[in-house]
Amino acid sequence: MRKVFFISMLLISMATYAQNKIHYNFIINTTFMVNENFGNYDEYEEDSDWDIIVPRALLLRNGFNVTLNNFMTIGLNLGLDWHEDLQVLAIPYYINSKFTLLKGDNYKLYFGGGIGKLVKLGKAFERGKYYTVGIGSQIAMDKTHDFIFNIDFHQKKIEGFENGRLNSLSLGVGISFL
Questions:
Q1: Can you give the pLDDT at residue 157?
Q2: pTM to 2 decimals?
Q3: Closest CA to 15 of 26, 4, 24, 2
Q4: How many domains does the structure of the chain reveal?
């Protein structure tokens, strides 16, 4: 009950303090790895595999960010992480903050970080802690939409996993709505 109260009070205070500067964002990230089958014949496609780098994981992020001032935003986010080759499925929920490094008329370069937890909804999902840090850019398309490009480092602390954690570096693209 305390968690529900805390989250609702946090959302209310964010909305009050934001002065109508609440943004919804959706970002698709992926991690990459070197193709172990480079140059080998693929019977399924009936051709040789010439891709040097292949996607490894799919990370979906959505959340609400509140612009506090020209320098800082904070947000609440929910995601879905799928590492197919490692058989890891996780749902992180976390708070994050972003600090503006450079700002122009139509763009913003920022540095950000976040901390949260992994939700266990069933046997397929993992439980643990979640950390993220990264750098990104927001480019204004018009007054209500921004294009997002980011590079993030994610760490998931999962019991029973190799070294107790899963580290990944991802590239992401997304959109933000005012």
A1: 92
A2: 0.80
A3: 24
A4: 1
